[in-house]
Amino acid sequence: MPFRSHRKTKFPHIEDDTPGHPLFVRWTNSPCGNHAANGNRPAKKRADYHPPLRMDGGGWVFALPGLVGFTVFFIGPFLISLGYAFMDRPVDGSFVGLANFASLFTNKAYLLGLSNTLKFILVSVPLNMGLSLGVAMLINRLSRFRELFSLLFLIPLVIPSGSMAFFWKVLFSYDGVLNGWLIAHNLARVNWLDSGLAFLIMVLIFVWKNLGYNMVLFLAGLGNIPQDYYEAAAVDGANPWQALRFITLPHLIPTAILTLIMSIINSFKVFKEIYLITGSYPHESIYTLQHFMNNMFSSLNYPRLTTATTVLVALIALFTQTLLRMERRASA
Questions:
Q1: Level-2 CATH architecture, domain 98-331
Q2: Which of 17, 19, 84, 149 keeps 20 to 30 A from 126, CA to CA?
Q3: pLDDT for the residue numbered 52
Q4: Structural domain spans, the chain
């Protein structure tokens, strides 16, 4: 219907709904006025509509150095090493097909490292995620000193690996502090690093170092859960266990999948501390894939080294893609 103003104008001979009236002109020139003049309601924009992102030339200029460095120092060397996996030797070698892969899975040292690595991941990653989630939930409930406690758990991330390895070696070596305490109390010494207990020490080092990192991820996930959900659940009579089961855990699925991926990646980094503590040939319970590949590199056995690396990269890529698909389905 035509727009009509109830204010007096300085054009008494022109009605408000006359096309020549200034108010009518201003109204019909607006987006809403055009629809109203045509007898249509203004179209509503979709709530989920987002304008497409475009990267101009300046954006590519800033991204180019990183892309070049990633290609030269990561993609290029990986493709070269991938070629070595199908050769019998790196220099003047002959193509042998899948023979290197077949011999790899019959190598006892490789199978030992593979089994220990899988065992370590299956034990340390769930333990680390469970402890970090519990610590994050406790810190999230604090009203004071939250930043202080978060900082305390993040300290292991900034300690250099050499200093960390020296601390653990002094603590668990045969003539170390812990055995000195046992002797002082008339107890027998324990060979911590050269027995089955070495595996538990490796799990302890991993959890101690990475608990703070996972805690930060879970704190971010907990902060994204609206408090209205918990208040509504409390009004409906839900207990804390029900709130955890039906509110907290379902909303933490995307964060948990990201934390799981990062924990698996970080589990391969514990080799640095274990190598500094025990050397190239540790007790068989903590002999991992990284020990095997490091020894192959020291012996210049590049075909076997690159074959083991290729298998490891393929397994990590397959597992990561599976988890990302699960995350997308959970978020849908």
A1: Orthogonal Bundle (1.10)
A2: 149
A3: 59
A4: 1-50, 98-331
